[in-house]
Automatic annotation (TrEMBL):
Flavoprotein is among the record's keywords: no
Keyword DNA-binding appears in the UniProt entry: yes
Gene Ontology terms: biological process: DNA-templated transcription initiation
Family the UniProt entry places it in: Belongs to the sigma-70 factor family. ECF subfamily.
UniProt cross-references to Pfam families, sorted A to Z: Sigma70_r2, Sigma70_r4_2
Annotated coiled-coil segments of the chain: none
Keywords for the protein's UniProt record, in alphabetical order: DNA-binding, Sigma factor, Transcription, Transcription regulation
UniProt organism field: Marivirga sericea
Entry protein name: RNA polymerase sigma factor
RNA polymerase sigma factor 70 region 4 type domain: residues covered: 139-189
Record-level Gene Ontology MF annotations: DNA binding; sigma factor activity
Length: 209
């Protein structure tokens, strides 16, 4: 799915934000660790939109994404002393948001991870994207229509920049299962795009008659 990565469909805004204001963030985080609520409000203003988008890509619905974001920031506030500056604050916060989103899916019985065991994916079974128009908006639409298990793995890998080892840890699955879920997700994305393009061609043919 390197084509999607070349289109820059994951993590760009947040990474740019981190690069441009890392020192300010460090000062804010240190202030938060002393209980400075104004400093935490500033962090909220910096990250709320990005974290909302992370949540939305997993839970699909805006009202649920808003709830997830609020709950994640509350958890971050009380866990701020656990942040040790070994990673960026955005990466640390994103994991809290992802876990909060997964908790919501599980609570509402919307989690449907397709357990497929330790199936390995060979190079020969890689998806052929020849002739497929990989428009970013269309790929996003395809991912939104995936079952929650496929959608979550695809979102974490493509949009949030997690490796399969990290995804496996977050979802409590094996690395091979994460890779297999992603492989199946890519196949469904391809099928969705092909069906979409076929529908457009048929609609165009009708109008030309």
């Amino acid at each position: 799915m390197q084509l999607l990565q070349n289109l820059g469909v994951f993590g760009i805004d947040l990474k740019r934000l981190e690069a441009n204001s890392i020192h300010i963030h460090k000062d804010l985080i240190i202030s938060c660790k002393t209980g400075d609520q104004k400093a935490f409000k500033q962090l909220y203003m910096l990250y709320a939109k990005s974290m909302f988008n992370v949540a939305l890509r997993i839970v699909k619905y805006k009202d649920e994404a808003e709830d997830v974001t609020q709950e994640a920031f509350i958890k971050a506030y009380y866990k701020i002393n656990q942040f040790d500056f070994q990673a960026t604050f955005g990466a640390w916060l994103k994991k809290i948001v992802v876990n909060q989103a997964l908790d919501l899916l599980r609570r509402e019985s919307k989690w449907d991870m397709d357990q497929i065991g330790e199936e390995s994916i060979s190079e020969e079974s890689e998806i052929d994207w020849e002739g497929i128009d990989l428009q970013v908006d269309l790929v996003k639409k395809a991912i939104r229509n995936l079952p929650s298990g496929f959608r979550t793995v695809a979102t974490l890998y493509l949009f949030e920049g997690f490796e399969h080892k990290e995804i496996a840890e977050i979802l409590s699955i094996s690395v091979n299962t994460s890779k297999s879920q992603f492989h199946r997700a890519k196949k469904r994305i391809k099928d969705f795009i092909q069906d979409y393009e076929k529908g457009n061609r048929q609609t165009g043919a009708i109008y030309q008659q």
